[in-house]
Amino acid sequence: VGTALGGGVAIAFAARHPARVGRLVVSSPACGGSEVNTRQLERAAGFEKDGVRPYADQSLALSYPKKYRTDRAKFEEYRNRWICNDPESFAAHGRMLANMNESVNFGKIACPALVLSGTDDPLRTPESVKAIADAIPDAQYRELSAGHFLPVTSPDVWTENVLPFLAG
Questions:
Q1: Alpha carbons 63 and 65: distance in angstroms, whole number
Q2: Of 1-10, 29-38, 85-94, the least confident
Q3: 87 and 46 in contact (C-beta within 8 Å)?
Q4: Is the per-residue pLDDT at 36 higher than 70?
Q5: Is 130 exposed, middle or buried (0-12, 13-18, 19+ CB in 10 A)?
Q6: Which letter does DSSP use for residue 24 in this model?
């Protein structure tokens, strides 16, 4: 199970180790390839130079849309955790994404897969996530009312979809 870059890592693992994965769930997966550009590498350099705080509001505006910030304390806690991320680690994640391309491995996934997209995710649009689901053999695809980080912005909706699939 993985979200965003964690979804890309889960896809990579499932493709490379099919005997070790019984079911796969990814939401808004970041898999590298065509979605990576110079901006990603510039952002990584910016994290190392300036830290993550200057990027917080812009990033959270895209990944955690205002319509899902119904609990102010919950959002502030998430924002504070985001700001406290290690800049070098964030930069390394960005560079990892810039150097990966899991699209060549989608067809190798042999287990049942559930691919989820947030209807309000401008970073991994429903169209781009559906294309990933279409490339994974027999994958189920669902669009949920959520932002980029589905388990964070819409935990109840995410749980209602994921737990029954994993139990299946």
A1: 6
A2: 29-38
A3: no
A4: no
A5: middle
A6: E
Separation of CA 129 from chain center: 10
Which H or E run contains 10?
helix 5-16
The predicted-structure confidence for 57-87, as pLDDT tens digits, reads as follows 999 999 999 999 999 999 999 999 999 999 9
Q: What is the mean pLDDT of the chain?
A: 94
- Give the DSSP H/E element, type plus range, for residue 26: strand 24-27
Give 74-115 as a 3 state SS string: HHHHHHHHHHCCCHHHHHHHHHHHHCCEHHHHHHHCCCCEEE
Between 115 and 37, the more confident residue is: 115
Tell the burial category of 61 from Cβ atoms under 10 Å away from its Cβ (0-12, 13-18, 19+): exposed
Name the one residue in this structure whose structure tokens are 């899991």. Answer: 102
- What's the pLDDT score for residue 98? 84
In this structure, what is the dihedral angle of CA atoms 10, 13, 14, 20, given to the nearest 10 degrees?
Answer: -120
For the entire predicted model, the pTM comes to 0.93
Res 35: pLDDT: 54
Stated length of the chain: 168
Which of 68-82 are b and which e, b meaning 16 or more Cβ less than 10 Å from the residue's Cβ? bbeeeeebeebbeeb
